Amino acid sequence: xxxxxxxxxxxxxxxxxxxxxxxxxxxxxxxxxxxxxxxxxxxxxxxxxxxxxxxxxxxxxxxxxxxxxxxxxxxxxxxxxxxxxxxxxxxxxxxxxxxxxxxxxxxxxxxxxxxxxxxxxxxxxxxxxxxxxxxxxxxxxxxxxxxxxxxxxxxxxxxxxxxxxxxxxxxxxxxxxxxxxxxxxxxxxxxxxxxxxxxxxxxxxxxxxxxxxxxxxxxxxxxxxx
Amino acid sequence: xxxxxxxxxxxxxxxxxxxxxxxxxxxxxxxxxxxxxxxxxxxxxxxxxxxxxxxxxxxxxxxxxxxxxxxxxxxxxxxxxxxxxxxxxxxxxxxxxxxxxxxxxxxxxxxxxxxxxxxxxxxxxxxxxxxxxxxxxxxxxxxxxxxxxxxxxxxxxxxxxxxxxxxxxxxxxxxxxxxxxxxxxxxxxxxxxxxxxxxxxxxxxxxxxxxxxxxxxxxxxxxxxxxxxxxxxxxxxxxxxxxxxxxxxxxxxxxxxxxxxxxxxxxxxxxxxxxxxxxxxxxxxxxxxxxxxxxxxxxxxxxxxxxxxxxxxxxxxxxxxxxxxxxxxxxxxxxxxxxxxxxxxxxxxxxxxxxxxxxxxxxxxxxxxxxxxxxxxxxxxxxxxxxxxx
Lengths: 226, 390
Prior knowledge:
The complex is a heterodimer. Chain A is an alpha/beta fold. Chain A is built from six helices and ten strands, in the order βββαββαβαααβαβββ. Chain A folds into two domains: 1-88 and 164-226, Rossmann fold; 100-163, no CATH class. In chain A, strands 6-7-8-3-9-10 form a six-stranded mixed sheet, with helices on both faces. In chain A, strands 2-1-4-5 form a four-stranded antiparallel sheet, covered by helices on one side. In chain A, strand 7 (166-170), helix 6 and strand 8 form a beta-alpha-beta unit. In chain A, helix 3 (104-114) packs parallel to helix 5. The longest helix of chain A is centred in the last third of the chain and has 18 residues, at 178-195. Chain A is globular. Chain B is α+β, with helices and mostly antiparallel strands. Chain B starts with a helix and ends in a 7-residue tail after the last helix. The model of chain B has no long low-confidence stretch (mean pLDDT 83). Classes of the chains: A alpha/beta, B alpha+beta. The A-B interface holds A 15, 17, 49-50, 53, 56, 58-59, 78, 82, 85-86, 90-91, 93-102, 106, 110-111, 113-116, 118-119, 143, 158, 162, 170-171 and B 1-2, 5, 9, 12-13, 15-17, 283-284, 287-288, 290-295, 297, 375, 378-379, 381-382, 384-390.
Protein backbone atom coordinates (compact mmCIF):
# COMPACT_ATOMS: atom_id res chain seq x y z
CA UNK A 1 0.00 0.00 0.00
CA UNK A 2 1.32 3.45 -0.90
CA UNK A 3 2.04 5.80 2.04
CA UNK A 4 -0.08 8.96 2.37
CA UNK A 5 1.71 12.00 1.05
CA UNK A 6 -0.98 14.34 2.31
CA UNK A 7 -3.33 13.76 5.17
CA UNK A 8 -5.72 16.61 5.98
CA UNK A 9 -8.32 16.29 8.73
CA UNK A 10 -10.98 19.00 9.21
CA UNK A 11 -8.71 21.87 8.28
CA UNK A 12 -10.18 25.39 8.34
CA UNK A 13 -8.78 28.77 7.45
CA UNK A 14 -10.25 32.23 7.83
CA UNK A 15 -8.59 35.45 6.73
CA UNK A 16 -9.47 39.10 6.59
CA UNK A 17 -9.92 40.67 3.21
CA UNK A 18 -10.57 44.44 3.20
CA UNK A 19 -11.89 44.16 6.75
CA UNK A 20 -14.22 41.27 5.94
CA UNK A 21 -13.67 37.83 7.44
CA UNK A 22 -13.55 35.26 4.67
CA UNK A 23 -13.86 31.55 5.46
CA UNK A 24 -11.50 30.20 2.84
CA UNK A 25 -11.44 26.57 4.00
CA UNK A 26 -14.24 24.84 5.88
CA UNK A 27 -13.47 21.51 7.55
CA UNK A 28 -11.51 20.17 4.59
CA UNK A 29 -10.48 16.52 4.85
CA UNK A 30 -8.70 14.40 2.26
CA UNK A 31 -5.78 12.07 1.72
CA UNK A 32 -3.39 11.65 -1.19
CA UNK A 33 -0.85 8.89 -1.75
CA UNK A 34 2.71 9.47 -2.93
CA UNK A 35 2.98 9.70 -6.71
CA UNK A 36 -0.51 11.12 -7.07
CA UNK A 37 -1.46 13.80 -9.55
CA UNK A 38 -4.43 15.52 -7.95
CA UNK A 39 -6.44 18.16 -9.72
CA UNK A 40 -8.63 20.60 -7.78
CA UNK A 41 -11.25 22.34 -9.88
CA UNK A 42 -13.76 24.96 -8.94
CA UNK A 43 -14.72 28.60 -9.35
CA UNK A 44 -12.51 31.55 -8.42
CA UNK A 45 -12.58 32.46 -4.74
CA UNK A 46 -13.49 28.89 -3.81
CA UNK A 47 -10.32 28.42 -1.72
CA UNK A 48 -8.09 26.52 -4.18
CA UNK A 49 -5.08 28.87 -3.87
CA UNK A 50 -5.45 29.06 -0.09
CA UNK A 51 -5.40 25.28 0.13
CA UNK A 52 -2.28 25.16 -2.03
CA UNK A 53 -0.53 27.78 0.09
CA UNK A 54 -1.35 25.78 3.20
CA UNK A 55 -0.16 22.50 1.66
CA UNK A 56 3.07 24.27 0.68
CA UNK A 57 3.72 25.65 4.17
CA UNK A 58 3.29 29.25 3.06
CA UNK A 59 0.27 29.81 5.29
CA UNK A 60 -1.06 28.16 8.44
CA UNK A 61 -4.38 26.57 9.24
CA UNK A 62 -6.66 27.81 12.04
CA UNK A 63 -7.87 24.37 13.09
CA UNK A 64 -7.65 20.69 12.15
CA UNK A 65 -4.57 18.61 11.50
CA UNK A 66 -2.39 18.50 8.41
CA UNK A 67 0.50 16.25 7.54
CA UNK A 68 2.44 16.63 4.27
CA UNK A 69 5.38 14.40 3.37
CA UNK A 70 5.61 13.27 6.98
CA UNK A 71 5.66 16.80 8.47
CA UNK A 72 2.86 17.94 10.80
CA UNK A 73 2.34 21.43 9.40
CA UNK A 74 -0.25 22.38 12.02
CA UNK A 75 2.37 21.87 14.74
CA UNK A 76 5.49 23.04 12.92
CA UNK A 77 7.52 26.06 14.09
CA UNK A 78 8.43 28.84 11.65
CA UNK A 79 11.89 27.32 11.24
CA UNK A 80 10.42 23.87 10.61
CA UNK A 81 8.01 25.32 8.05
CA UNK A 82 10.92 27.03 6.34
CA UNK A 83 12.81 23.73 6.22
CA UNK A 84 9.68 21.99 4.93
CA UNK A 85 9.34 24.52 2.12
CA UNK A 86 12.97 24.05 1.19
CA UNK A 87 13.03 20.26 1.22
CA UNK A 88 9.58 18.95 0.47
CA UNK A 89 7.63 21.20 -1.84
CA UNK A 90 7.88 23.53 -4.79
CA UNK A 91 5.40 25.91 -6.41
CA UNK A 92 4.31 26.72 -9.92
CA UNK A 93 2.11 29.79 -10.41
CA UNK A 94 -0.19 30.97 -13.16
CA UNK A 95 2.02 33.98 -13.87
CA UNK A 96 5.29 32.04 -13.51
CA UNK A 97 6.75 34.44 -10.92
CA UNK A 98 10.26 34.20 -12.28
CA UNK A 99 12.65 36.86 -11.07
CA UNK A 100 12.81 39.25 -14.03
CA UNK A 101 16.41 40.39 -13.47
CA UNK A 102 17.92 36.96 -13.94
CA UNK A 103 18.19 34.60 -16.88
CA UNK A 104 16.52 31.18 -16.94
CA UNK A 105 19.59 29.37 -15.61
CA UNK A 106 20.00 31.80 -12.69
CA UNK A 107 16.29 31.55 -11.88
CA UNK A 108 16.49 27.76 -11.73
CA UNK A 109 19.69 27.97 -9.65
CA UNK A 110 18.15 30.13 -6.93
CA UNK A 111 16.35 27.41 -4.92
CA UNK A 112 19.60 25.44 -4.82
CA UNK A 113 21.60 28.47 -3.72
CA UNK A 114 19.04 29.07 -0.97
CA UNK A 115 19.86 25.54 0.19
CA UNK A 116 23.59 26.28 0.27
CA UNK A 117 24.55 24.35 -2.88
CA UNK A 118 27.77 25.79 -4.41
CA UNK A 119 27.18 27.85 -7.54
CA UNK A 120 29.05 25.53 -9.93
CA UNK A 121 27.10 22.50 -8.77
CA UNK A 122 23.87 24.51 -8.82
CA UNK A 123 24.57 25.57 -12.41
CA UNK A 124 25.02 21.94 -13.48
CA UNK A 125 21.80 20.81 -11.80
CA UNK A 126 19.90 23.80 -13.17
CA UNK A 127 21.12 23.05 -16.69
CA UNK A 128 19.91 19.46 -16.28
CA UNK A 129 16.51 20.65 -15.08
CA UNK A 130 16.22 23.05 -18.02
CA UNK A 131 17.14 20.23 -20.39
CA UNK A 132 14.37 18.12 -18.83
CA UNK A 133 11.83 20.78 -19.79
CA UNK A 134 13.46 21.14 -23.24
CA UNK A 135 14.85 24.62 -22.60
CA UNK A 136 18.57 23.83 -22.60
CA UNK A 137 19.13 26.24 -25.48
CA UNK A 138 17.32 29.11 -23.76
CA UNK A 139 19.25 29.01 -20.49
CA UNK A 140 20.80 32.45 -20.94
CA UNK A 141 17.54 34.17 -21.86
CA UNK A 142 15.76 36.45 -19.44
CA UNK A 143 12.05 35.88 -18.70
CA UNK A 144 11.12 38.87 -20.86
CA UNK A 145 12.80 37.14 -23.81
CA UNK A 146 10.78 33.93 -23.37
CA UNK A 147 7.21 33.09 -24.38
CA UNK A 148 4.56 32.35 -21.71
CA UNK A 149 4.90 28.59 -22.24
CA UNK A 150 8.68 28.79 -22.01
CA UNK A 151 8.50 30.85 -18.82
CA UNK A 152 6.18 28.27 -17.29
CA UNK A 153 8.61 25.51 -18.27
CA UNK A 154 11.40 27.47 -16.56
CA UNK A 155 9.14 27.70 -13.48
CA UNK A 156 8.66 23.91 -13.65
CA UNK A 157 12.45 23.43 -13.95
CA UNK A 158 12.87 25.69 -10.91
CA UNK A 159 10.41 23.50 -9.02
CA UNK A 160 12.00 20.24 -10.21
CA UNK A 161 15.60 21.17 -9.49
CA UNK A 162 15.27 20.64 -5.74
CA UNK A 163 13.65 17.21 -6.28
CA UNK A 164 10.64 17.94 -4.05
CA UNK A 165 8.17 15.33 -2.78
CA UNK A 166 5.31 17.48 -3.98
CA UNK A 167 4.82 20.17 -6.62
CA UNK A 168 1.90 22.53 -6.07
CA UNK A 169 0.68 24.18 -9.24
CA UNK A 170 -1.73 27.10 -9.09
CA UNK A 171 -3.45 27.52 -12.47
CA UNK A 172 -0.29 26.49 -14.37
CA UNK A 173 -1.99 26.80 -17.78
CA UNK A 174 -4.20 29.78 -16.98
CA UNK A 175 -2.06 32.28 -18.89
CA UNK A 176 -1.15 30.05 -21.82
CA UNK A 177 -2.62 29.37 -25.27
CA UNK A 178 -3.99 25.89 -25.89
CA UNK A 179 -0.83 24.55 -27.52
CA UNK A 180 1.45 25.81 -24.73
CA UNK A 181 -1.07 24.54 -22.15
CA UNK A 182 -0.98 21.08 -23.76
CA UNK A 183 2.85 21.08 -23.62
CA UNK A 184 2.76 21.89 -19.91
CA UNK A 185 0.18 19.15 -19.28
CA UNK A 186 2.33 16.66 -21.18
CA UNK A 187 5.30 17.69 -19.10
CA UNK A 188 3.36 17.22 -15.85
CA UNK A 189 2.21 13.76 -16.98
CA UNK A 190 5.73 12.80 -17.99
CA UNK A 191 7.25 13.93 -14.67
CA UNK A 192 4.46 12.22 -12.74
CA UNK A 193 4.68 8.95 -14.64
CA UNK A 194 8.40 8.70 -15.25
CA UNK A 195 9.91 10.37 -12.17
CA UNK A 196 7.17 9.77 -9.65
CA UNK A 197 6.83 13.48 -8.79
CA UNK A 198 3.53 14.15 -7.00
CA UNK A 199 1.42 17.08 -8.14
CA UNK A 200 -1.52 18.99 -6.72
CA UNK A 201 -2.90 21.24 -9.45
CA UNK A 202 -5.52 23.92 -8.87
CA UNK A 203 -7.21 24.91 -12.12
CA UNK A 204 -10.25 26.09 -14.02
CA UNK A 205 -9.07 24.10 -17.03
CA UNK A 206 -11.28 21.01 -17.25
CA UNK A 207 -8.88 19.40 -19.77
CA UNK A 208 -6.38 18.94 -16.98
CA UNK A 209 -8.78 16.47 -15.34
CA UNK A 210 -7.68 14.03 -18.04
CA UNK A 211 -4.23 13.73 -16.49
CA UNK A 212 -5.43 13.46 -12.89
CA UNK A 213 -5.16 10.41 -10.68
CA UNK A 214 -7.43 12.14 -8.16
CA UNK A 215 -9.95 14.88 -8.90
CA UNK A 216 -11.53 17.26 -6.39
CA UNK A 217 -14.11 20.00 -6.62
CA UNK A 218 -13.64 23.03 -4.38
CA UNK A 219 -16.49 25.46 -3.78
CA UNK A 220 -17.05 27.97 -0.94
CA UNK A 221 -14.17 26.51 1.03
CA UNK A 222 -15.46 22.97 0.90
CA UNK A 223 -13.61 20.14 -0.87
CA UNK A 224 -15.38 17.19 -2.43
CA UNK A 225 -14.00 14.24 -4.38
CA UNK A 226 -15.32 14.43 -7.94
CA UNK B 1 24.67 31.22 -0.47
CA UNK B 2 28.28 32.27 -0.70
CA UNK B 3 29.17 35.95 -0.52
CA UNK B 4 30.60 36.16 -4.04
CA UNK B 5 27.58 34.40 -5.54
CA UNK B 6 25.25 36.69 -3.60
CA UNK B 7 27.19 39.76 -4.75
CA UNK B 8 27.03 38.55 -8.36
CA UNK B 9 23.24 38.10 -8.15
CA UNK B 10 22.76 41.42 -6.37
CA UNK B 11 24.93 43.23 -8.88
CA UNK B 12 22.81 41.81 -11.73
CA UNK B 13 19.70 42.86 -9.81
CA UNK B 14 20.97 46.40 -9.22
CA UNK B 15 22.09 46.71 -12.84
CA UNK B 16 18.76 45.45 -14.10
CA UNK B 17 16.93 47.90 -11.87
CA UNK B 18 19.44 50.63 -12.68
CA UNK B 19 17.11 53.61 -12.74
CA UNK B 20 15.68 53.09 -9.25
CA UNK B 21 19.10 52.05 -7.95
CA UNK B 22 20.65 55.15 -9.50
CA UNK B 23 18.03 57.40 -7.91
CA UNK B 24 18.66 55.84 -4.48
CA UNK B 25 22.38 56.16 -5.07
CA UNK B 26 22.21 59.79 -6.19
CA UNK B 27 20.11 60.84 -3.20
CA UNK B 28 22.60 59.28 -0.75
CA UNK B 29 25.56 60.61 -2.79
CA UNK B 30 24.16 64.16 -2.66
CA UNK B 31 23.83 63.93 1.12
CA UNK B 32 27.37 62.59 1.50
CA UNK B 33 28.59 65.42 -0.73
CA UNK B 34 26.76 68.05 1.38
CA UNK B 35 28.14 66.53 4.57
CA UNK B 36 31.73 66.45 3.31
CA UNK B 37 31.58 69.99 1.93
CA UNK B 38 30.13 71.38 5.15
CA UNK B 39 32.88 69.51 7.01
CA UNK B 40 35.37 71.21 4.71
CA UNK B 41 33.82 74.58 5.52
CA UNK B 42 34.11 73.90 9.25
CA UNK B 43 37.75 72.92 8.79
CA UNK B 44 38.40 76.19 6.95
CA UNK B 45 36.67 78.22 9.64
CA UNK B 46 38.59 76.45 12.37
CA UNK B 47 41.78 77.12 10.44
CA UNK B 48 40.72 80.73 10.05
CA UNK B 49 40.18 81.11 13.79
CA UNK B 50 43.27 79.16 14.72
CA UNK B 51 45.89 80.33 12.37
CA UNK B 52 45.61 83.97 11.50
CA UNK B 53 48.92 84.21 13.26
CA UNK B 54 50.89 81.50 15.00
CA UNK B 55 52.98 83.10 17.72
CA UNK B 56 55.64 81.33 19.80
CA UNK B 57 54.75 80.56 23.42
CA UNK B 58 57.44 82.84 24.83
CA UNK B 59 55.86 85.92 23.25
CA UNK B 60 53.49 88.07 25.27
CA UNK B 61 51.05 89.96 23.12
CA UNK B 62 49.85 93.50 23.68
CA UNK B 63 46.69 94.57 21.95
CA UNK B 64 43.45 96.52 22.48
CA UNK B 65 41.27 95.25 25.29
CA UNK B 66 38.12 94.68 23.31
CA UNK B 67 39.56 93.88 19.90
CA UNK B 68 38.62 90.56 18.39
CA UNK B 69 40.51 90.68 15.13
CA UNK B 70 44.04 92.12 14.92
CA UNK B 71 43.05 94.88 12.44
CA UNK B 72 40.70 96.32 15.10
CA UNK B 73 43.49 96.85 17.61
CA UNK B 74 45.59 100.01 18.11
CA UNK B 75 48.82 99.97 20.05
CA UNK B 76 51.63 102.53 20.20
CA UNK B 77 55.24 102.25 21.27
CA UNK B 78 54.62 104.10 24.56
CA UNK B 79 52.22 101.36 25.70
CA UNK B 80 54.59 98.64 24.58
CA UNK B 81 57.43 100.33 26.42
CA UNK B 82 55.28 100.68 29.56
CA UNK B 83 54.74 96.94 29.78
CA UNK B 84 58.35 96.19 28.92
CA UNK B 85 59.46 98.42 31.81
CA UNK B 86 57.05 96.74 34.21
CA UNK B 87 58.43 93.33 33.27
CA UNK B 88 62.05 94.34 33.60
CA UNK B 89 61.30 95.99 36.98
CA UNK B 90 60.04 92.68 38.32
CA UNK B 91 62.02 90.09 36.41
CA UNK B 92 65.28 91.86 35.61
CA UNK B 93 66.78 93.88 32.77
CA UNK B 94 67.28 90.86 30.52
CA UNK B 95 63.70 89.59 30.92
CA UNK B 96 62.56 90.97 27.54
CA UNK B 97 64.93 90.05 24.75
CA UNK B 98 63.00 91.63 21.91
CA UNK B 99 60.05 93.91 21.31
CA UNK B 100 58.01 93.78 18.15
CA UNK B 101 55.69 96.34 16.61
CA UNK B 102 53.41 94.42 14.35
CA UNK B 103 51.32 96.23 11.78
CA UNK B 104 48.39 94.28 10.38
CA UNK B 105 45.73 94.90 7.75
CA UNK B 106 43.39 92.81 5.60
CA UNK B 107 43.38 94.16 2.03
CA UNK B 108 41.90 93.18 -1.31
CA UNK B 109 44.33 92.25 -4.06
CA UNK B 110 43.04 90.84 -7.35
CA UNK B 111 39.61 90.25 -5.78
CA UNK B 112 41.12 88.24 -2.94
CA UNK B 113 41.41 89.23 0.69
CA UNK B 114 45.00 88.90 1.87
CA UNK B 115 46.99 89.99 4.90
CA UNK B 116 49.36 92.91 4.76
CA UNK B 117 51.74 92.78 7.67
CA UNK B 118 54.49 95.19 8.61
CA UNK B 119 57.26 94.32 11.05
CA UNK B 120 60.96 94.58 11.49
CA UNK B 121 62.34 91.65 9.47
CA UNK B 122 65.13 90.88 11.93
CA UNK B 123 62.83 90.91 14.96
CA UNK B 124 60.33 88.82 13.09
CA UNK B 125 63.00 86.33 12.08
CA UNK B 126 63.77 85.81 15.78
CA UNK B 127 60.12 84.96 16.48
CA UNK B 128 59.53 82.75 13.52
CA UNK B 129 62.20 81.81 11.07
CA UNK B 130 61.66 83.69 7.81
CA UNK B 131 62.89 81.46 5.02
CA UNK B 132 63.50 83.07 1.64
CA UNK B 133 62.45 80.46 -0.91
CA UNK B 134 62.86 82.48 -4.07
CA UNK B 135 64.12 85.96 -5.06
CA UNK B 136 65.82 88.37 -2.69
CA UNK B 137 65.12 90.49 0.39
CA UNK B 138 63.63 93.94 -0.39
CA UNK B 139 66.16 96.74 -0.74
CA UNK B 140 63.79 99.73 -0.80
CA UNK B 141 60.22 100.86 -0.04
CA UNK B 142 59.11 99.89 -3.57
CA UNK B 143 59.58 96.16 -2.91
CA UNK B 144 57.77 93.61 -0.76
CA UNK B 145 57.84 89.95 0.19
CA UNK B 146 54.95 87.53 -0.26
CA UNK B 147 54.42 83.93 0.87
CA UNK B 148 53.51 80.85 -1.18
CA UNK B 149 49.85 81.00 -0.19
CA UNK B 150 49.67 84.49 -1.70
CA UNK B 151 51.09 83.22 -5.00
CA UNK B 152 48.72 80.24 -5.00
CA UNK B 153 45.68 82.41 -4.26
CA UNK B 154 46.29 85.42 -6.49
CA UNK B 155 48.55 83.99 -9.17
CA UNK B 156 50.83 87.02 -8.69
CA UNK B 157 54.45 85.92 -8.46
CA UNK B 158 58.03 87.05 -8.28
CA UNK B 159 58.84 90.30 -10.14
CA UNK B 160 55.19 91.23 -10.53
CA UNK B 161 53.50 94.24 -9.00
CA UNK B 162 50.88 94.62 -6.31
CA UNK B 163 49.13 97.86 -5.42
CA UNK B 164 48.60 98.46 -1.71
CA UNK B 165 46.99 101.65 -0.43
CA UNK B 166 47.98 103.49 -3.61
CA UNK B 167 51.56 102.27 -3.69
CA UNK B 168 52.85 99.90 -6.35
CA UNK B 169 55.18 97.33 -4.88
CA UNK B 170 57.31 94.83 -6.79
CA UNK B 171 57.54 91.36 -5.31
CA UNK B 172 61.22 90.80 -4.72
CA UNK B 173 61.04 87.51 -2.83
CA UNK B 174 58.83 84.65 -1.75
CA UNK B 175 59.12 83.54 1.85
CA UNK B 176 57.95 80.73 4.03
CA UNK B 177 57.21 81.20 7.72
CA UNK B 178 55.43 79.19 10.36
CA UNK B 179 53.88 82.44 11.65
CA UNK B 180 51.21 82.63 8.94
CA UNK B 181 48.83 80.13 7.44
CA UNK B 182 47.30 82.71 5.15
CA UNK B 183 48.12 84.69 2.04
CA UNK B 184 50.49 87.46 3.02
CA UNK B 185 52.28 90.54 1.77
CA UNK B 186 55.08 91.28 4.22
CA UNK B 187 56.39 94.82 4.52
CA UNK B 188 59.05 96.34 6.68
CA UNK B 189 57.54 98.24 9.65
CA UNK B 190 58.75 101.66 8.48
CA UNK B 191 57.60 100.86 4.95
CA UNK B 192 54.11 100.00 6.24
CA UNK B 193 53.92 103.24 8.25
CA UNK B 194 55.01 105.12 5.15
CA UNK B 195 52.52 103.45 2.80
CA UNK B 196 49.61 103.84 5.19
CA UNK B 197 50.75 107.32 6.25
CA UNK B 198 50.77 106.38 9.90
CA UNK B 199 53.10 107.09 12.74
CA UNK B 200 53.59 104.86 15.70
CA UNK B 201 50.32 103.03 15.20
CA UNK B 202 50.29 99.29 14.96
CA UNK B 203 47.95 96.45 15.89
CA UNK B 204 49.92 94.00 17.99
CA UNK B 205 52.89 94.55 20.25
CA UNK B 206 55.12 91.62 21.04
CA UNK B 207 57.32 91.13 24.10
CA UNK B 208 59.70 88.23 23.58
CA UNK B 209 60.70 86.86 26.96
CA UNK B 210 64.09 85.43 27.85
CA UNK B 211 64.54 81.69 27.86
CA UNK B 212 63.53 80.10 31.15
CA UNK B 213 61.07 82.85 32.08
CA UNK B 214 57.56 81.51 32.57
CA UNK B 215 55.24 83.55 30.28
CA UNK B 216 52.20 82.74 32.45
CA UNK B 217 53.90 84.05 35.58
CA UNK B 218 54.97 87.22 33.79
CA UNK B 219 51.52 87.76 32.32
CA UNK B 220 49.88 87.22 35.72
CA UNK B 221 52.21 89.76 37.30
CA UNK B 222 50.86 92.35 34.88
CA UNK B 223 47.21 91.52 35.52
CA UNK B 224 47.07 93.68 38.64
CA UNK B 225 47.97 96.82 36.73
CA UNK B 226 45.16 99.21 36.19
CA UNK B 227 46.18 102.17 34.15
CA UNK B 228 43.23 104.13 32.95
CA UNK B 229 44.93 105.79 30.04
CA UNK B 230 46.12 102.47 28.62
CA UNK B 231 43.72 100.80 26.27
CA UNK B 232 45.66 97.57 25.94
CA UNK B 233 46.08 94.34 27.76
CA UNK B 234 48.83 91.79 27.81
CA UNK B 235 47.86 88.34 26.65
CA UNK B 236 49.47 84.96 26.40
CA UNK B 237 49.71 83.57 22.87
CA UNK B 238 46.86 81.12 23.50
CA UNK B 239 44.57 83.92 24.72
CA UNK B 240 44.87 85.35 21.27
CA UNK B 241 43.87 82.03 19.69
CA UNK B 242 40.93 81.72 22.05
CA UNK B 243 39.73 85.21 21.13
CA UNK B 244 39.97 84.65 17.39
CA UNK B 245 38.42 81.21 17.67
CA UNK B 246 35.52 82.68 19.62
CA UNK B 247 35.01 85.17 16.82
CA UNK B 248 34.51 82.30 14.37
CA UNK B 249 32.58 80.09 16.73
CA UNK B 250 29.26 81.42 15.44
CA UNK B 251 30.12 80.45 11.87
CA UNK B 252 31.46 77.11 13.02
CA UNK B 253 28.22 76.47 14.90
CA UNK B 254 26.13 77.28 11.82
CA UNK B 255 28.16 74.93 9.64
CA UNK B 256 28.13 72.40 12.46
CA UNK B 257 24.34 72.41 12.20
CA UNK B 258 24.59 71.96 8.42
CA UNK B 259 27.04 69.11 9.00
CA UNK B 260 24.68 67.53 11.52
CA UNK B 261 21.77 67.87 9.11
CA UNK B 262 23.97 66.19 6.49
CA UNK B 263 24.58 63.27 8.86
CA UNK B 264 20.89 63.00 9.75
CA UNK B 265 19.97 63.03 6.09
CA UNK B 266 22.50 60.27 5.46
CA UNK B 267 20.57 58.31 8.11
CA UNK B 268 17.34 58.74 6.18
CA UNK B 269 19.10 58.14 2.86
CA UNK B 270 20.47 54.79 4.05
CA UNK B 271 17.09 53.80 5.52
CA UNK B 272 15.30 54.87 2.35
CA UNK B 273 17.64 52.82 0.18
CA UNK B 274 16.67 49.74 2.24
CA UNK B 275 12.97 50.59 2.50
CA UNK B 276 12.75 51.38 -1.22
CA UNK B 277 14.39 48.07 -2.15
CA UNK B 278 11.83 46.31 0.08
CA UNK B 279 8.86 48.24 -1.26
CA UNK B 280 9.80 48.03 -4.93
CA UNK B 281 10.65 44.33 -4.93
CA UNK B 282 7.95 42.88 -2.70
CA UNK B 283 6.89 40.32 -5.23
CA UNK B 284 10.45 39.14 -5.82
CA UNK B 285 11.04 38.94 -2.07
CA UNK B 286 7.87 36.86 -1.55
CA UNK B 287 8.85 34.61 -4.43
CA UNK B 288 12.37 34.20 -3.02
CA UNK B 289 10.83 33.14 0.30
CA UNK B 290 8.55 30.70 -1.53
CA UNK B 291 11.45 29.03 -3.35
CA UNK B 292 13.28 28.44 -0.10
CA UNK B 293 15.14 31.53 1.12
CA UNK B 294 14.69 32.02 4.85
CA UNK B 295 13.77 35.36 6.42
CA UNK B 296 17.33 35.63 7.76
CA UNK B 297 18.79 34.97 4.31
CA UNK B 298 16.52 37.63 2.81
CA UNK B 299 17.57 40.15 5.47
CA UNK B 300 21.22 39.33 4.74
CA UNK B 301 20.66 39.77 1.00
CA UNK B 302 18.81 43.03 1.56
CA UNK B 303 21.62 44.24 3.81
CA UNK B 304 24.19 43.32 1.20
CA UNK B 305 22.21 44.99 -1.58
CA UNK B 306 21.72 48.16 0.45
CA UNK B 307 25.42 48.22 1.34
CA UNK B 308 26.31 47.86 -2.35
CA UNK B 309 24.05 50.81 -3.21
CA UNK B 310 25.17 53.06 -0.35
CA UNK B 311 28.87 52.22 -0.82
CA UNK B 312 28.64 53.19 -4.47
CA UNK B 313 26.69 56.28 -3.39
CA UNK B 314 29.33 57.10 -0.79
CA UNK B 315 32.20 56.94 -3.26
CA UNK B 316 30.15 58.90 -5.79
CA UNK B 317 29.40 61.58 -3.14
CA UNK B 318 33.03 61.63 -2.04
CA UNK B 319 34.23 61.96 -5.62
CA UNK B 320 31.66 64.70 -6.33
CA UNK B 321 32.68 66.63 -3.20
CA UNK B 322 36.37 66.33 -4.10
CA UNK B 323 35.77 67.45 -7.69
CA UNK B 324 33.43 70.32 -6.73
CA UNK B 325 35.83 71.70 -4.09
CA UNK B 326 38.87 71.40 -6.37
CA UNK B 327 37.06 72.87 -9.35
CA UNK B 328 35.51 75.73 -7.41
CA UNK B 329 38.89 76.65 -5.93
CA UNK B 330 40.52 76.34 -9.34
CA UNK B 331 37.86 78.40 -11.12
CA UNK B 332 37.14 80.91 -8.37
CA UNK B 333 39.73 80.94 -5.56
CA UNK B 334 38.18 82.45 -2.47
CA UNK B 335 39.74 83.66 0.75
CA UNK B 336 38.71 85.14 4.10
CA UNK B 337 41.28 87.23 5.96
CA UNK B 338 43.92 85.80 3.69
CA UNK B 339 43.01 82.21 4.54
CA UNK B 340 42.15 80.25 1.42
CA UNK B 341 38.70 78.70 1.67
CA UNK B 342 39.32 75.38 0.00
CA UNK B 343 36.48 73.36 1.62
CA UNK B 344 39.04 70.63 2.10
CA UNK B 345 37.71 67.76 4.15
CA UNK B 346 40.11 65.35 5.76
CA UNK B 347 40.27 61.61 6.42
CA UNK B 348 38.54 62.11 9.77
CA UNK B 349 35.47 63.61 8.04
CA UNK B 350 35.38 60.85 5.43
CA UNK B 351 35.72 58.13 8.06
CA UNK B 352 33.04 59.72 10.26
CA UNK B 353 30.58 59.83 7.35
CA UNK B 354 31.50 56.29 6.27
CA UNK B 355 31.17 54.86 9.78
CA UNK B 356 27.88 56.62 10.39
CA UNK B 357 26.51 55.50 7.04
CA UNK B 358 27.46 51.88 7.78
CA UNK B 359 25.70 52.04 11.12
CA UNK B 360 22.61 53.70 9.66
CA UNK B 361 22.44 51.14 6.85
CA UNK B 362 22.65 48.26 9.29
CA UNK B 363 19.91 49.63 11.53
CA UNK B 364 17.86 50.85 8.56
CA UNK B 365 17.80 47.39 6.99
CA UNK B 366 17.10 45.61 10.28
CA UNK B 367 14.32 48.04 11.11
CA UNK B 368 12.79 47.84 7.63
CA UNK B 369 13.02 44.01 7.69
CA UNK B 370 11.46 43.72 11.14
CA UNK B 371 8.45 45.63 9.92
CA UNK B 372 8.12 43.38 6.94
CA UNK B 373 7.74 39.62 6.78
CA UNK B 374 6.08 38.72 3.48
CA UNK B 375 5.05 35.24 4.56
CA UNK B 376 3.06 36.71 7.44
CA UNK B 377 1.07 38.90 5.10
CA UNK B 378 -1.57 36.78 3.50
CA UNK B 379 -2.67 39.39 0.99
CA UNK B 380 0.84 39.77 -0.37
CA UNK B 381 1.18 36.02 -0.60
CA UNK B 382 -2.12 35.76 -2.41
CA UNK B 383 -0.83 38.36 -4.87
CA UNK B 384 1.48 35.67 -6.25
CA UNK B 385 -1.58 33.97 -7.62
CA UNK B 386 -2.82 37.16 -9.22
CA UNK B 387 -1.34 39.44 -11.82
CA UNK B 388 1.92 39.31 -13.65
CA UNK B 389 5.34 39.62 -12.10
CA UNK B 390 6.64 43.15 -12.11
